[in-house]
Design a protein that fits this description.
The chain has 516 residues and is an alpha/beta fold. It contains 20 helices and 14 strands. The strands form 5 sheets. The protein has a 6-stranded parallel sheet with strand order 11-10-12-13-7-14. A two-stranded parallel sheet has the order 1-2. The protein has a two-stranded parallel sheet with strand order 3-4. Helix 18 links the parallel strand 12 and strand 13.
Length: 516
């Protein structure tokens, strides 16, 4: 949602007055608004203007700007080195009881600092100094200025040095996470964004603010405790989510305890999100709104997602007439890859069955790893396509969604071992389906992994819905077609195959066993 907001402002030639708190999920597009980036930007900008600001303030109380400039130069060239010598001298004196190696390191650092201090003083003051008395020498260098500025006094120099000390303290505040500059930033921004847990960070204290609006995105994925944090912070609350996609992540231990404590409660009710409970409540039926017009997916992809995942719940998605295609895909690709949606069937491959690492609950599928790499090779050979994808706003226009974390690691290793054109590798993102909700890519490749009778958690409508609805222009499913086509139950990927099979006349869908 944050990336979409930035894109909207960019479209109209502006930048949002936005702050992003927390370190999770920081993309290149969001980074300029992150607390660490803003803090560093403020620090550099302030540091670059310290001399001007200090002289301006000193001038306002009757101190000549020339004197301020000279005091600043002494503090900048000698003061920092003098203070460093003092710190290193203390460390060296205190290192008597530590091992010889660490003591020697401290002594080497001290000698280097004293040599730098001596050289700087020789250049600035044109005299030799006593490096064992750095602060005395610094004081003497300031006093010497009075011979040049006869109408000024020691009090004037002290005043300028106090101004510079205040500036240093401000710079240190911006450079140190412990000084809570984030709290200042949070109070100066119109829009503050964070994860549900991140807004409760006590050091930032934004939970004490009362915002006009609190918008919780992906609210259907929030556990009750996660949702409870942000909804206490606003006068009005807007929950945005889709309970037909990923559900809250509740640990198996907690689910087990709840079933023991109240065995009459169905498992579906335990897993149900507070967002869904609110949405289907009497209040939700009058105040909630279902948005059915979508702008992301190619109409053919939208049609199959709507038919397989939403229409069973009496919701029909439609593609907006204002939707614009983000990328013109090459017609020189293998025929099946020119279609908006295709299925690469790996069932005839020798190693088409899923495997499981020892002492692991996750699965991988070598045949699907090979197929994914072949698909990427096809795209990497299309120079014009690579250029167009690289020129776009997306950080990673090609997304690979894995139904299992072991498959994600296998594909990442296979991609790392391959020699790709320099421009192509940065275009690829690999992640699990559980990490993909809310994301989108121009091209999406979905690796199903499961190829035997047990569908595992690929039986989940919610997970499959997420995987199928992330692509903007092209969706490629990689998996064993017979496994899902012949499944006993009405599994979500079986419905996908049935829909594709029942629309043979359309050029939008296709099945293939080998890309050639």
């Amino acid at each position: 949602m944050i990336e979409a907001l930035v894109s909207i402002y960019k479209r109209f030639g502006g930048r949002p007055n936005l702050l992003r708190i927390g370190s999770k999920g920081i993309t290149a597009k969001i980074r300029p608004y992150h607390t660490a980036e803003l803090r560093e930007r403020y620090r550099v900008r302030f540091e670059g203007a310290v001399k001007y600001r200090a002289s301006l303030l000193a001038s306002s109380i009757g101190i000549p700007r020339e004197l301020s400039a000279d005091v600043f130069e002494i503090e900048q060239k000698l003061g920092t080195l003098a203070r460093r010598c003092i710190v290193l001298r203390q460390l060296t004196d205190e290192s008597v009881g530590i091992n010889a190696t660490d003591r020697e390191k401290n002594e080497v650092q001290l000698r280097r600092a004293e040599a730098s201090f001596s050289a700087a003083a020789k250049q600035l003051l044109d005299r030799t100094i006593d490096v064992t008395r750095p602060m005395d020498e610094l004081e003497q260098s300031h006093i010497t200025l009075l011979t040049k500025y006869k109408t000024s006094s020691q009090a004037d120099i002290t005043a300028v040095r106090s101004i510079l000390e205040l500036s240093r303290d401000w710079l240190n505040s911006m450079a140190s996470p412990q000084r809570n500059f984030e709290e200042f930033l949070a109070k100066t921004r119109s829009i503050v964004t964070a994860t549900c847990v991140g807004v409760g960070q006590t050091k930032i204290r934004i939970d004490s603010n009362n915002f006009d609006w609190v918008i919780v995105d992906e609210a259907a994925r929030c556990t009750p405790s996660e949702l409870a944090v942000p909804i206490q912070m606003g006068r009005r609350i807007l929950l945005v989510g889709d309970h037909h996609q990923l559900m809250p992540m509740i640990s198996r231990n907690i689910i087990g305890q709840l079933r023991v404590e109240d065995p009459d409660v169905p498992i579906e009710e335990i897993l149900r999100s507070d967002f869904e409970r609110s949405f289907i409540s009497a209040y939700g039926r009058t105040s909630g709104k279902t948005l059915t017009e979508q702008y992301r997916m190619h109409p053919a992809i939208c049609e199959i997602v709507s038919n397989c995942f939403y229409e069973p719940h009496k919701v029909q998605l439609k593609t907006s007439e204002q939707r614009a295609s983000s990328t013109q895909l090459s017609n020189t690709l293998p025929n099946v890859l020119t279609k908006p949606l295709c299925w690469i069937d790996t069932s005839d491959e020798r190693n088409h069955r899923e495997s499981q690492l020892q002492n692991s609950t996750s699965f991988y599928n070598d045949a699907e790893v090979t197929a994914v790499v072949k698909i990427l090779e096809c795209f990497s050979e299309q120079g014009d396509l690579v250029t167009e994808l690289a020129r776009g706003d997306e950080e990673s226009p090609i997304g690979i969604i894995c139904m299992y974390s072991s498959q994600k690691r296998k594909i990442e290793m296979a991609i790392a071992r391959h020699a790709w054109p320099p421009r192509f590798r940065p275009l690829i993102r690999v992640d699990t389906v559980d990490a993909y909700q809310g994301k989108e890519n121009t091209i999406v490749i979905v690796s199903l992994v499961r190829a035997t009778r047990d569908p595992g958690h690929v039986r989940s409508d919610n997970r499959c819905n997420v995987a199928m609805s992330r692509a903007k222009e092209k969706l490629i499913i990689v998996g064993s077609k017979p496994m899902w086509e012949n499944a006993d139950r009405d599994l979500p990927m079986k419905r996908v195959i049935r829909f594709m099979t029942n629309h043979p006349a359309t050029s939008a869908f296709g099945f293939v066993k080998d890309l050639g």
